[in-house]
Amino acid sequence: MRREVQRGLWFEEFETDVVYDHRPGRTITEADNVLFTTLTMNTQALHLDAAFAEGTAFGQRLVNSMFTLSTLVGLSVAQLTQGTIVANLGFGAVAFPKPLFHGDTLYASTVITDLRESRSRPGEGIVTFEHTGRNQHDDVVATAVRTTLVRKRPPAEYT
To answer: What is the model's pTM?
Structure first.
């Protein structure tokens, strides 16, 4: 009987100009937002104080943008990098064009925008991801460019 273990893609399996949709989405709860916000010592009233947030242009508390970013990237892991990533090398062009609120569902997709073999680390390559997060109304709520170091496929005797 053959056995398959879920993993991300090896460097050689990534393709540019392909949209990878990550499912299922993640519905964000009040508890998620409050826990993340307090764990990270972010005392911003827009995340914690319902009465304060009600008086803002948003009319309610916002989901912490760092939680949104973390969840956006996390939604891609099982499909793209589970067990194959070596390291995150950096993030750039992070944007939050619309807010995410308690009860919203975050859906993620990723496009690979660049691939190159590592010049300093044989057996690994550099992959640039362009992540996009949308809510249940298909509004873009977060975007980020992430550069990673990913393992190449090991020799056949190790797979």
So the answer is: 0.92
